[in-house]
Amino acid sequence: MLPRPKTVLVVDDDEGMRDTLCAILKRDYRALSVSSAEDALPRLRAEPVDLMLLDVRLPGMNGLELLRLVKDQYPLVEVIMISAVSEVETAVQAMKHGAYHYITKDFEYDGLRSLVQHASERQDLNRRVATLSAQVADEGEREFVAGPSSAIRGVLDLVHKVAPLSATVLVLGESGTGKELLARMIHRASANRDGAFLAVNMSAIPSELVESVLFGHERGSFTGAHKLQLGKFELAAGGTLFLDEIGDLRHDLQSKLLRALQENEIERVGGHKPIRTDFRLVCATNTDLERAVAEGRFREDLYYRINVVPIRLPALRERPEDVPDLVRFFIRRYAARFRKPVEGISDSALRALGRHRWPGNVRELENLVERVVAVNDRGWIDDEDLPLEYQLAEIDADVRARETLLQDAVATFERSFILRSLERCEWNVTATARYLGIPLSTLKHKMGRLEIREIARRLRGSG
Length: 463
Prior knowledge:
Number of domains: 4
Shape: elongated
CATH superfamily of the largest domain: P-loop containing nucleotide triphosphate hydrolases
Mean pLDDT: 86
């Protein structure tokens, strides 16, 4: 699909000048013309105007007054002021109020074409800046972290097949599995990789603002709408739009989304003209959309429109073999960020983490590693560095240990407490026994029974 030509609105009370300007520009632009500022305002509301050639002296409202209104209500429209005479004060006022340039009517045709082209390029740049400003996520460290499991490798194989295509992707999975990060991976491997990636979490937007956020709004369309605002669909043009928790989209807006996908057209809130847009859509949800369709909460036609390529991200508990790789990756990330000398994690600590159920999935794992690294000063992560509930996970997961569950839990706590006491006493066993109020022989016996002598020796050496 070829991009639409930009629209130039000529505002001049001289019919001959209007015809001349339109004739010069019609080869490269869609040229419209009106004879007064009063006629220009309804044209701006009805047409997708990009550029204006505006006469300074007009009957009724003059050009400078119209300029101020345009820049207030339509900030992305670039305005070139035209005057029969060169007036320094007028030129200064025009530039002060946001005009792109000021020229007299004795212009050269090629010079005018070049000036309008430069104004168009600045508009493209300003639109790009607005789009980039909407990309609030820091993409530098936000990447999808995989592991060796066959489940996640199957996901990556499917991503590599569909990413270069324009097909809509629906990512399914529990919260915390990395659905947005997978969407970013799809974008980086797509034909739109140089365009914007905009992420919208539907569940995080107040219900009354969803329509404005997605479709934008015209000035005055509702209380507080003081100026035109572009929506995510416009800002994502040429890139990828990621709609997270699509199952939470209001039912009355689902038809508007369906039209945007089918027709590549939207209408801003309060607007009356269709706006062309073109973007790659990736949706995600942890909701059972088929059930939502059956219950009438989600449109069936929209479901089939977004469910072109479904990709299911497995929960972390379904792929425990990925936990070690994920843990080591996050240790490297946060050791570098916090400038901590943490080099690795013990096998026993990894076993404990592998037994945990991870209801928060990869997000929970990352947050845990971040916390552990932040408070670690020894260079190595062991069992005692983990919160107690993670240490107990291995005991709780072992069905055979049910008869000795309390005994094993007490031993786990005792082991952790002794290690922390040793650290407090700078790994001096005699001082630790004194601190704990037990005989030295008792402490040594416990250290042997709880298999922490080697850990204490290694940590004492690293200190």
